[in-house]
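User: quick one, fold this
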Amino acid sequence: MVSRLTASKGVNEYVRAALEVREKYPEARFYLVGPMDDDDRSLDQGMLQKAAREGTVILTGWVDDVRPFIEKARVFVLPSYHEGTPRTVLEAMAMGRPIITTDAPGCKETVEEGVNGFRVPVEDVDMLVDRMIWMIENHDAVQRMAVNSRILCERKYDVRKVNGAIIEELGI
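Assistant:
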């Protein structure tokens, strides 16, 4: 997960899911890349810090380049409550990573269900856990989803196509 560390990005759900998945798959690693949002009182700091101390979640803080972390990941997760089109998801798709995100507007448009990843309901930790475990247990399908993420990214989000659509819409 790459994001500001704030509750509305789904950090609490990500950490809770990581804790549950690690009970079944202790070798699983969960990176949380991004700066802390110090103004967010709804982020469960105690749970986050405990998960980091125990090694369940690897906190990196701010990084200048997220690519090495996305490259390490088999799956990219963003359980956000609301977004525009999330840049971090697009970056992960461009790098050929399957996606688990929410059915929130902005997020849901990045995933074709079962093709390049999964959408889960906002704040649904149980479904997030189920999808994470599915990704661990279905290596070949995950590989296909990874390829499909890149294809979908090129088809839907290529900057030349996006800019062309904007120019056409504006009638320029």
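User: anything notable?
Assistant: The mean pLDDT is 93.
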